[in-house]
Amino acid sequence: MNTYPIGTPGLPWGEAERAQWRAQQTQQRSYHSEVLSAIEHLATDFDVVQYGELNDEQQVLPLMALYSRPWQPALPVVLVTGGVHGYETSGVQGALQFLAQDAQRYTNKVNLLVVPCVSPWAYERIHRWNAEAIDPNRSFFEPSPAAESAALMRLIAPIRDQVMLHIDLHETTDTDESEYRPALAARDGVPFVPGSIPDGFYLVDDTEQPQPEFQAAIIRAVEKVTHIAPADEKGEIIGSAVVAKGVIQYPLTKLGLCAGLTNARYKTTTEVYPDSPSATPEQCNAAQVSAICAAIEYLLSDA
């Protein structure tokens, strides 16, 4: 029996239930002080563009992207996205840390487009969904039900076919099992089926266009920073078969995932485990940075 406190078991949520859920979400951190302030400091080295905004009840939340300078049409385009799920902190902070400490190494080698926080409303409330109880990372299709996803697709559209590498930064947390999966089951009116949370870092490759050597290169780099998630007793991670050390596969575009929004040859979704007793927030951020750098180095070595 679904015991989530909102809704009636077996019945999908309507607007009343979504409103009840939304009323329970409170701001727990500041997008302006934790993200926008960092972006302001990066403006001396990158072209900063506002590509949309979210109109929260209390404030306007600008959607921001950073482009490497100078942008050179002959160079491959690398897309880095973070914070598609706002509660996955190292995706946001890892993207910002990469821009601050490593991105300049790739000047005149690649064109970088970095969107550190796709979902600022969810970032402030430490939640997976947006204000409409919609998962942006299942909404990268036309027409998108999520304003965050639709705005990012509009931003990417002019260069969609030029992107050679897209790395989308995520986390898998213990609250996936304690809060978000039960909430999802309640929202959709289906029974909650308990699962397990993998202990460690892993990647999600594209079922339709797998790149095993690319994924392996990232795993080798990240395991110097944090541990890699092992397969469970079924040989799986979160219900998907492990195809290589720390790697599973999803049909990225078919599922409407952010990592599938371009035709990039190299795509991956990182999944950091911040609740591990052996992983600090600093390690989680460093793992994301290491993954980005390893992905770019692989692209350059294959050019």
UniProtKB/TrEMBL annotation:
| Pfam families from the UniProt entry | AstE_AspA_cat
Q: Which UniProt keywords apply?
A: Hydrolase, Metal-binding, Zinc
> Record's family?
Belongs to the peptidase M14 family.
Kindly give the InterPro entries that the UniProt entry links to this protein.
Answer: AstE_AspA_cat, Peptidase_M14
Q: What is this protein called?
A: M14 family metallocarboxypeptidase
Query: In this protein, which residues make up the domain named Peptidase M14?
Result: 27-303
**Gene source species:** Oceanisphaera pacifica
**Cofactors, names only:** Zn(2+)
